[in-house]
UniProtKB/TrEMBL annotation:
Protein name: ABC-type transporter ATP-binding protein EcsA
Subcellular location: Cell membrane
Membrane topology: Peripheral membrane protein
GO CC annotation: plasma membrane
Pfam families linked to this entry: ABC_tran
InterPro entries xrefs: AAA+_ATPase, ABC_transporter-like_ATP-bd, ABC_transporter_ATP-binding, P-loop_NTPase
UniProt similarity note: Belongs to the ABC transporter superfamily.
Statement: the UniProt record of this protein carries the keyword Transcription regulation: no
GO biological process, one term: response to antibiotic
Presence of keyword ATP-binding: yes
GO molecular function: ATP binding; ATP hydrolysis activity
Amino acid sequence: MRRFPIVIQIDIRSYQSQRGHYKHMLDLIDLTKTYGQVKALDRMTFSVQPGAVFGFLGPNGSGKTTAMRSIFGLISLEAGHVQWKNAPITPDEIRQFGYMPEERGLYPKMSVMDHLVYLGRLHSLSTETATKRAQALIDELEVKGGGSAKVESLSLGNKQRTQIAAALIHEPTLLVMDEPFSGLDPISIEVVRGIFKKYAQEGKTVLFSSHQLEVVEDLCESVAIAYQGRIVAWDRLTTLTELDKDLIIKVQDDLDGNYLNQIDDISILDNHEGTFRLRLARPELAPVVLHRAMEFGTLERYEVARRRLSDVFKEAISTSGLSNSQWETRDDFDEDLKFKAEHQTELGHDLKDEIS
Ligand SMILES: Nc1ncnc2c1ncn2[C@@H]1O[C@H](COP(=O)(O)OP(=O)(O)OP(=O)(O)O)[C@@H](O)[C@H]1O
């Protein structure tokens, strides 16, 4: 009997999926895009799982918006591709996605209700269904003035709530939101957080970018951190913020932390009026610090804590080995504005004025 060599091909992503680690719906694979001198995307790769909220982080200009736009086919990639359910995304699937872009676009003269129904109709909803859903969203998001309010009369936060309703009107299978929390007050943030959570609990996929790390920390199950067009960290939040890495300690009346002198392998992350957050190189250092503190004075606070996302973020960037030489130059910025002006579809705002 002739024997054929057996070739076993393991797709690492499906393997991870079987193990339940990265059970993914959306894959961004090796995305590459250059604007002039700037590599907006430099083989950017990450996956988003369903049923959980995914936070997309990164400093300004790290490629988040470009990556999100590529999901909708809004930019031509030089290399790489985006997959939905392990296959290239079809135009039909894109129509079922919801997107809130960075440049918000609402029709100022329309009422909130008319606006939402119009967008619902564009997604092939009947007027009746669109009206029902629009009303439910207006109620849920508590848009001030309700459906009859004119968009132009709304405050920034209420415009934002309307924009979020617009992205949700057709009950999308994938929700992609570019900075949905910027400009929102704490109560609005709470409302939107609730909506994202509910959406994810229904098994849908939610990806959003944000610079508000405390919101991301409270809301997301997984995060990816982009820097210079690459992903420099990507994992479950609980893995990234490792348990028991930081120590929070305060000794009464000691604002300078003199008891910390001469203990090696600890770094001070911050000091708020004598309450120190320390990073320990090894967990065994915790009792050493405790002992020194108690020798020194009365212990007011002692707590072993998770790392903060802001520290994970800073460390991911500083240890990425990438320099910031690629950051925006004035020329790139102008190119960006020109591009936006050419593609501006929103009403009432002409970016050409900004360029001249
Ligand atoms: N149309 C364009 N023309 C020229 N440069 C562009 C264009 N779009 C993006 N860039 C550049 O690509 C880089 C990545 O931009 P992108 O908007 O994706 O970053 P971002 O992470 O979303 O930033 P932010 O957090 O500030 O919104 C930046 O240097 C930006 O100036």
